Amino acid sequence: MTTKPKAPSVGDIKDDKVEEAPASDEQSTASKADMRLLFVYGTLKRGHRLSSWLSGQSFVGLAEVSDATLIDLGPYPAMIAPVPDHKVRGEVYLVDNSRYAALTNMEVAAGYTEVVVSAKILSGTSVEGIEGNSIGAYAYAYPVLALNAQWTNVADKPTEYIGAVTSAD
Fold first, then answer.
1. Per-residue pLDDT for the chain (169 aa), expressed as one digit of tens each?
2. Reported pTM
3. β-pairing, 58-66 with 134-141?
4. CA distance 142 to 159
5. Distance CA 112, CA 142 (A)
6. CA dihedral defined by 151, 157, 160, 161, rounded to 10 degrees?
7. Dihedrals phi, psi of 54, to nearest 5 degrees
8. Phi and psi (nearest 5°) for 141?
């Protein structure tokens, strides 16, 4: 049996602006019918400022989404698509519906749009037989029409998220 990677504690996070999730950190007891797959790529990833919002949710694995890239919005990145020949790396979680609703409210209030992506599971998965396969997952993307020329593609500007963007091979 593969052990699930342990997410760092809030004390392990170097960012002094850690924001706490509004709900309990207890392991979700929701049935699989009451859960959704969620692809995250920035501040919601393990070790980042909003990672506590995924406490108690099930880590599925490291993943990537093709034909998308990240832009730098200052304190956080935003995924945009379609951007041919680019990939965004992130993490996939199995999230209960109540936590998903709280996350969606937060992300929509910040200007993001709820989307469905095809995420290829790369490694670290706790689900047998899924590694190397693509799955449908929800994600939060930035509306392309809202882009402003002052924002730069993180592939052109080093940030803490630069490792999340790779050119497609």
1. 434 333 333 233 333 343 444 444 444 555 667 899 999 999 999 999 999 999 999 999 999 999 999 999 888 899 998 888 999 999 999 999 999 999 999 999 999 999 999 999 998 776 777 778 899 999 999 987 444 433 344 444 333 333 333 334 3
2. 0.69
3. unpaired
4. 18
5. 5
6. 70
7. -105, 10
8. -120, 160
- Omega of the bond prior to 82 within 30 degrees of 0, cis? yes
Nearest one of 63, 49, 57, 54 to 22, comparing CA atoms: 54
Relative to beta strand 134-141, strand 113-123 is: antiparallel
Are 107 and 61 in contact by the 8 Å Cβ rule? The answer is: no
What's the Cα-to-Cα distance from 58 to each of 1, 30, 51, 124, rounded to whole Å?
15, 11, 13, 12
The encoded tokens of residue 138 equal: 């929800």
Write out the H or E segment, with its range, that includes residue 122. Answer: strand 113-123
- CA dist 78 and 142 (Å) reads 6
Span 29-160: which CATH code?
3.10.490.10
Each domain of the chain, given as residue ranges in start order, spans: 29-160
